[in-house]
Amino acid sequence: MRVTDSMKYDLFVLRFSSVKAQLDQVQERLAANKKVSRPSDNPVAFAKGVELGAEQVLYEQFGSNITQAKTVFSLYNLSFNSIREGLSVAKTVAADHATGSMTSSLRESALKQIDSVIEQLVSNGNTMSGGSYIFGGKQTNEAPFRLNADHSVDLLLPPGSEGSNEVYLDRGYRETIGISGRDAFFGATKTLYESASNAYAGDSYCTTDNFVYVIETGMNDTINVAGTDLTLASGVYTGASLANEMQSQLRSLLGSDDCSVAFDSSIRKFVITNNTAADVQLNWSLSNAADTLGFDNVDNVLGSGKKLESDLDSGKKSFLVKILTSGTTTGAAGRATYVYSTDGGATWLADADAIAVSTGGADAVGGDITITAGLNDGICVNGANVLIGPGTYTGSTLATAIEDALDPLNTGSYSVTYNAETRKFSIANNAGGAVTFNWSDSTAAGVLGFEYVDSFVGNGTSDTSDYDAGMFIDGSGVPTAENNGIKLSFSTGTTDYLTANRDSFEISDFSTFAVLKNLRDAIEQDNSHLTGKLLGELGTAMDIADKNGAYIGFKMQRIEVLTGDNQARELRSAEIISNTIEADLAQLSAEYNTLSTIYQSLIYSMSKIQDLNILNYLN
Fold it and tell me: Which fold would CATH assign to domain 52-186+511-569?
């Protein structure tokens, strides 16, 4: 084969173009600091680079969220440290005043200290981070607390905003970033507050841990589902057991187990989940149980796969009590009477229906526990109902009546006692074998202080009341939707006296601010008796702050672990990207120098070839 000059020239031009393309490619890689810039460079490496780049963005977002969480949790930590310090000061002041030996000048100084503590805690509660109130729950653009002129404090969080927001700190891991003002300063249990201006100096007791839900037939027992009433069984429930009853009835009505009901005890709300294939119409406007369950009267369509939460805190009910007629707390006659309100004082029990104060059976002279036939006279033992004789009893005489009902032949099978200090009954089983007290089926359970939960009692052992015996706050002998299982009783001191139009009480949710306001008023009124009682409530406030502080500490430790994990992943991802996509600048520089030299040589050679072509043409 003959190699012509034309072929040589074409090969030279091809080589020249190839070197020029390689040089351009190296220059592009140097400029972009990447060895793979487009799919054609290396399809596999390019696809891997895109995947790793997306992960890198994700890790950067996690890092940003973690930084934000660290900042917020650090502020929470500082806030709760400050809250604990303030409460410690308040507790010291309260202990000093409780001795009853403070002079007026010292009380004035103590009052200023408590005012300062309240102001400090409000400031802590309104802490901001980046323009957001960290205790605002889901409403972070408005201050959650307001300090009033009398140093009372209002929580301004609207219903439904008391939860906290969540952010992703890792793949598939969401963290709650925030503590609401309610979680920081309030508790879910009821507390008995006494007015600082009370003349009454005796003790008062309340079943603050026994708030229950009571379903009554025809009153609050229906939920309308798509035009059909679902009927709840009447009875006494905890939040969890009522959720189970709702779930059972809802599944029966829908003919499907793909729906559930739960109770969130931290916010006292019911959560209905619909996992059926169809939407569920909940007509709260037609449901008499709506208020009991915390739902407003707005109908809802619960879509498939969706959840519905109570609109309101279902356990926020409070009781205001005021003495209507003055009198003693004991005796068969001459006892003080009271009326109560469950709507903040807007309406009160009629004066004609005023209730005589109770000692929960502790008064040995005048009975104040009433057993009514067919209402609260039954104790179910091993499935058989035993009836207590009707009448009004002291605790000790009622213990005898219970024993007579359980052991009518006086064989010694049962022994029943009453403790006036704890206001509780104890039933000893001496029958020779185990017995079951079916309190869930016993109408006398509530008045005797037993929860509606069955008890298995072995031979030689006892079953003791779970809470105070006695009548309920509305004068009833059984838990009702009105009283929610709350009782109020007083001491048996013969000199204890309740004064009309002066002595008053409130039973409501625990509030750190309410306790501090009560303490402030007690110091101002020089009520050292009340101050002494409030020491225990200040301890509860400290417990809430300690619990939240420990929770924040745990969260901060968790975030430190996530920080390390995220940084390690970012480094690994960056290293892989570097090896796969990013250019080796030293190697590219060497290639560039080599190709540049070759390219310059080819340009020189091209110029010589062009010169020869012109000479040949001229010749």
Answer: f41 fragment of flagellin, N-terminal domain (1.20.1330)
